[in-house]
Amino acid sequence: MQSKEIQLSNRRTVTFRHLHLFVRRTEVAIILLAIIASILVCLPTIAFTDTLSKGATEEFERALDLIEQTQLELFIHSPPQSTADVLGELKKRVESTAYPKRNQSGSSRETTIMRELLSETIDQYEDQYANYISPQQLIAYGERRSGSYVGVGLKFRAVTGGYPLVIGPLLGGPLENSDIKPGDRIIAIDDIDLQGYSTAKISQQLKGEPDTRFQLSLRRENKQHTVSSTRKAVDLHYARAEMLVNQIGYLRISRFGGNTHKRVEELLRDLIAKGISSVILDLRDNPGGSTRAARATVSMFSTEPHIYCEKYKSGDVRQLPRHGPHITDLPLAILVNGESKSSAEIVAGALQGYHRGLVVGSPTFGKGLVQRVFNLAEPIGGALRTTIAMFGTQSQGLIHGSGIVPDHYIETEADFMFRESGSLNISTQARAYQRQLLETQVRKKYQDSDSDKAERIIAAEDLQLQLAIEVLITHDAELHSSESK
Question: Per-residue pLDDT tens for 379-434?
């Protein structure tokens, strides 16, 4: 009996020892799991800290400083976040697991977060002209500013759900002498079907590296043919010229690219060589652009030392000087409308202010703001565009919100029919086809409401241009009358 009790006691001792050992092992396991869990939670931060280079952080802080130092606070309703607050938000997002290591475009997690924060920081200023420019957008921006790009040299129009329409080859481009006409449909490039492609996607396919071969598949009157050539640098001419009645020279500038003034000078000298009696400078629908090109354009017609003034965030005011040669003192009329903006208003305002020319048309848009683009280093890349100053006329007359008021006012419902934009180095046939497309749009717009109005608009003449011509003819007549006395 006693032996059985001893055996039972021994069994209980062994059982309790096993149980104690199990509990100890379980406690150790729980502690290990807790340690592993804490490590897993910290991994995104640790991994990101490893990839968050010192260079990226310094460039991000430099970008924030540029915004704070240069961006005007004209439209803001509450104070923007401080640099410290934005850096705090960066840390918060870094520690979040919401961002993948790389996005669809291949940008790293840190780059995505920094670009996002820069966009949000600029957006706080509620300035429609200031923004963060992505690396892809910066390439397109550079092409517009420089007035050149590498591609096939083709002006086209995207069609929703359909194949893009050819407006015409750009003169001087690789397709200038090819079998391609206004109205052709672009079916494919290098076997890539373009149906339903947006303008941006079509442009992306047409552009490429210099000297790369391409093949366009085109459709004309239900017959398909191909055109092959080699991509090359193509100049975008934002100015064109022609001779009007009474030996009046006509210069149209659709925008001010970085080199537009060189093209304008070439065209102006050519017109003078042909014996023009006066000049019409058409800045209608010109969205602006390079202020240097604007100063150079004014300088061709004026000998005055200053063109316009800029007022900065610090309160300092700077007079901007002339740029380039003075070419002519011939009588001058400047055409403007409600879509003439920025640098176009600099030109019109300076020539009007110095009584060098008469402004004809309707009041300009009134964008008297100067933007500057600051390129950002990798890995952020892209650029910041901030509004660094307000500008006014050389006499410090306000332009923003006011615009330039014409000396001779005229505005009609058909003015938009004479709009020209973008590159102007296309053929006469291409320009006529653009007009044809516009007429089709007008008829479609009014087909159910007022078809007579559509036909009236289409038949209308360019009365703004006619008034500019009349102003110059009258001026010429008065000049001759004065000389004969």
Answer: 999 999 999 999 999 888 889 999 999 999 999 999 999 999 999 999 999 999 99
**Which residues does 112 contact at the CB level (< 8 Å), separation at least 6?**
99, 103
Assigned domain for 91 exists = yes
The pLDDT score that the predictor gives to residue 476 is 76
* Whether residue 31 is found in the same domain as residue 62: no
Any idea which residue has 């901030």 for tokens? 386
Instruction: Give the CATH number, domain containing residue 268.
Output: 3.90.226.10
In this structure, the answer to whether residues 373 and 362 fall within a common structural domain is yes
Q: Calculate the alpha carbon distances from 159 to 181, 185, 196, 201, 447 in Å.
A: 17, 10, 7, 12, 21
End-to-end CA distance of the chain: 154
Report the chain's mean pLDDT, rounded to a whole number: 89
CA dihedral of residues 173, 178, 179, 183 (deg, nearest 10):
10
> Which 3 state secondary structure label does DSSP give 170?
coil
394 plus 301 within the same structural domain: yes
**How do residues 88-129 score in pLDDT, each as one tens digit?**
999 888 887 666 665 555 467 888 899 999 999 999 999 999
- Would you state the structure tokens that stand for residue 394, as one six-digit string? 């050389």
Residue 41: predicted pLDDT: 44
| Phi, psi (rounded to 5 degrees) for 142 | -60, -35
Which residue range is the domain that position 480 belongs to?
239-412+460-484
Q: 251 and 199, same structural domain?
A: no
Q: Look at the chain and report how many structural domains it folds into.
A: 4
d(CA 83, CA 61): 8
The answer to whether residue 451 is domain-embedded is no
